[in-house]
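Request: When convenient, would you put together a sequence paired with its structure tokens?
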Amino acid sequence: MTSFTNADNLRGADFREVSLAGSQFYDVSFAGASFREADFGGARMIGVQFEDVVIDGLVDGLVINGVEVAPLIEAELDRRHPGRERLRSDDPDDLRAGWSWLEEQWAATTAEALAAPVDRLRLRVEDEWSFLETLRHLVFATDCWLGVGILGRTTYHPLGLAGPWLDPATCGLDVTADPTTEQVLEVRAERQSLVRDRLATATRASLMVETTPWDASPWPPPEPMTELARLHVILEEEWWHLQFARRDMASWADGT
């Protein structure tokens, strides 16, 4: 195992696609460090200091000072956003109401974005996706979990935007695409309609049916999942990226 000591200065080091699994950190400073797409599964942090730390991501089974925090976070998010709890329901009527609520939230947010200076739509805040890139990613998410995962499709819209963990070439995405706002809004509306139409006919029985993408599916994995589970992924993606978009839009006034 490679060892680093105080004789090694790793300040400002850039680690990309590196596995530090099983590593030990003792008396080290992560002050000001940035972690993106990082997996902390099974990590144990003892005697650590968390002050002014921001964590955005999947939080499940996280125990801090003997308290599992995920249920507390979920309850607080539901309190702040009445209606959010329906996105996790297994009742078709709840899911339809939750999607309608999401569409209303997105419509208001998109209208606000379109009223801002046009350059803001392509502005990346702290290297996060721009507003238009966020909408393109949601196109891809719908193509994956509904188009491929439920409807059995084998293609993705070329304007979709995948996460950094997936080679876009495997999905036929156009990495050189620079679509207009109108083009993005058009395909986004088509995908929203696709979800709305699918939920309109959903029943408790249909939600429990397992589907499997074609064998060579780059994403989602070609493994069986219930339709409910796949729709939950879409609803989760939609809600979280709405929060991210609104977070970044709050900084548009000063152009940061």
